[in-house]
TrEMBL record:
It holds the Pfam family Band_7_1. Residues 26-234 form the SPFH domain. CDD domains: SPFH_like_u1. Keywords: Hydrolase, Protease. GO terms for molecular function: peptidase activity. Residues 307-351 form the GYF domain. This is Membrane protease subunit (Stomatin/prohibitin family). GO terms for biological process: proteolysis. SUPFAM superfamilies: Band 7/SPFH domain. Coiled coil: none annotated.
Amino acid sequence: MSFWNKLKGELIDIIEFLDNTQDTIVYRFERHNNEIKNNAKLIVREGQMAVFVNEGQIADTFSPGTYNLNTQNLPILSTLQGWKYGFNSPFKAEVYFVSTKNFIDQKWGTKNALILNDSRFGMVEIRAFGIYSFKITDAPVFIREIVGTNQTFTTEHIQEQLKSIIVTRFSDSVGETNLPIESYAANLNELSAAIFGYMKDDFAAYGMDVTKFLIENVSMPEEVKKEIFELSRLDKIDLDKLMKLKAAKSLEAAAENPSGTAGMGIGLGAGMAMANQMTQAMAGQAQNNQTNQNAQTPPPIPGTVAYYVVIDGKQAGPFDKNSMKDLAARSVLTRETLVWKQGMSDWVLAGGQTDLQDLWTMTPPPIPKQD
C-alpha cells in the first residue's frame, strides 16, 4: 500500500454519537470547519436519526445503520452543493443526531392556580400536576421548528413550552367537562384520556408524539376540601343516630365536669340513660300532641245520655235528648236510623230503644204519598 493510500485511509472519518445522558434530544456533531472527508463512515444507532444540514437547509436523513458517505447516499446534499460527477475532497455539512427514544417521566404542573366556577362552591382555585412521555417522530420538523442552531438540545430546553401546552389543554378540558369539583379525584383517568387526545395534534406540529399522559393529583383549598368531606359524611350517616350520639357525648362531658350541675356523681352510664329518657319523652310528647289533635270533641256532660247517630252513612254526634228531638222533628232521625251510646257493644236501630220512643209519639207521622 502506498503512503498516500495509507494516509488516505487514516483520514477517513467516523461520524457517530454515543449518548451517555438520559435527557439529550439533539446533538450536533462537531468537526473542524464542519469538514467531512469523502467516504467517511456514518454510524447511526438504534434510537437515533442523523440529519445533514447544508448552509442552514435540511438535506439528507439517515435511519439506524452504517453508511459510507458519498454522492450515492447523499443525493440531496450532492444536489445542493452541485456535485455532478462525484467528489474526492472534504465537504462541509452539519450533522445532527436526533434521539427517537421515549423520554419518560417528564413532570408537568400548574404554575398558578386555575380558577373554576363550581355549581356548589362558587369560584374555587385548583392546582394540578402529573407526568407525561414523548418522543421525536419527525426529526427534520423538530430541528426546523424547535432546535434551531443549538449544538445540544435537551429536555430542559423544551419543558416549559410543553408544560404550557399541557396546562392550556388541562384548563380547556376541565371547563368543557363541567364536573363537580368533588368528582375530580374519581375521574382522573377520564380527564387524562381526554387531554391525551387533545395534545396529539399539538405535539405533532413540532415533529413529536406524546406517548403517555397522566394527571396524578388535582388539589383545592383546604377549607373547600373539609366542606366536601363534611357533606359526604352527611350523605351517608343517619341524622337521627347522629343527634342521639351528640346528646350522649354532651351529657358525658357534663358528667365529667365537677363544677357542672350534671357532674354530681353522673357517669357515662347515667348520661346514656338520660339520653334515652329524653328521646322517649320527646316521642311521648309527640304522640300526646297527635292524640290531642284528633280529640276535637269534648265528652258529654255527666248525668246525661248522649247518642251517636249514623246520618248519610257517617257518624255524627254525640247528641243529647233535645238534639235528638230536633233530628226526629226534621225526619233526619227515624226508627230505622242506627244509633249508639256508651255501654252498647254495637250499633242498633233507634226504634228499638225504649228511651227514644217518645221522639216519634210527640211528632206527627210523615204525610202519606198521594196516588
